[in-house]
């Protein structure tokens, strides 16, 4: 009998325990939202203060950094260094000496037959100086490829004497000044190239597209007699005609 009573007592206690548990669960479920809301309220209160504090700290740091950079900028130091001016003496130029070597032919002593009276006193032989010239130097230069003006300058620089045109009693006509006289008579002559050299064999002109030398027939009845530095002499119908260099005669 006692065992039955003990079993009923245990059953009663179990029932009471099962009936009280939902209340505990509901109480716990109610307390959890209350704690969360309190935490949220605390965060809402502290967040603005935290942001303001962080902003103030950043501004203070920036101001302090700017002041430090301003105080620690490098300063420009101007240092004056004394100097002395050394005045040089002006250069003195002595007489210039020519370094151009010109081959000068040695003087030749030519004995002169002395008369009997001169032989008694032992007369000295006469010294005849030979003229010096730079013609050998000029002959080695080929001036045919140069313009007449440049060739003339080179020849003048070397001190060469230019051959003078032959003096004749013939009347010479200038084609540039007396064009009316030869209009319709003298054929067309276009002097395209004019090459003058101290060597007559290297003188030539190009007329109407053809090269000619002294003595050639350049057109019907027209003979090229001479090539000078700035002109040519032609012979036409027994008369001498001077034509300027590079002249274009239309005929």
UniProtKB/TrEMBL annotation:
> What GO CC annotations are associated with the protein?
type II protein secretion system complex
Describe the location of the Type II secretion system protein GspB C-terminal domain by residue ranges.
186-245
Q: Which Pfam families match?
A: T2SSB
Q: Which InterPro entries match?
A: GspB_C (IPR032389)
The protein depicted here goes by the name Putative general secretion pathway protein B
Q: What is the lineage of its organism?
A: Bacteria, Pseudomonadati, Pseudomonadota, Gammaproteobacteria, Vibrionales
